[in-house]
Structure prediction request, 215 residues.
Amino acid sequence: MRSESPAFPACLSAAAPSHLADGLLDGLTEHGWSQQNIFLSAQLTLELAAECRALAANGVLNPAKVGRGTAQALRTEIRGDRILWLKAGQSPACDQYLQLMENLRIALNRALYLGLDEYESHFAFYPPGASYQTHLDRFRDDDCRTVSVVIYLNHNWLPEQGGALRLHPQGESTQDIAPLGSRLVLFLSADMLHEVLPATRDRLSLAGWFRRRPA
Ligand code: OGA
Ligand code: MN
Prediction:
């Protein structure tokens, strides 16, 4: 059993310059999604962006596939990003980010009783013109992914550069969220249809999923 300490205000530790915005957690259950504009510090955003760019330049990112397990396929017309899954100890910046996500996992469990016990995450790099067509993050044969997380790493993003995350909440109008550096978006993996619109510049992010243990 993973320890639930340190207590919630650990978000205020050195590794965690941000705090959770009012309504961030309740918004997730009330609307199926929520967001916070300044989640990462400017410094950590810069460091993670530099790391993502270096991985891309060094050819370390892999074309993302769709589907799961043996059904995985490369379909760049459906999904055009390149990714690298994070490992603990990969870099100080990634470890700070993973610590923030651990604090967020504990906060989600305390506020919403979600029983989240794992986090998986990858860097994502969308070159200009790349997109990700409308999809759900939960796989048909694996219902462990519960809360989807995206954090953007793009300095000075302008609306005309495109690249929005478009959410399709059931029975409501779509919501476009620009990939502004340091912004966090949460949504329910099983229910929220969403897509990534093409951009005119590189689009960098960290995408992740809080998972429940398989039943
Ligand atoms: C994903 C995804 C959204 C985004 O990686 O599954 O939907 O805004 N990402 O990058
Ligand atoms: Mn997705």
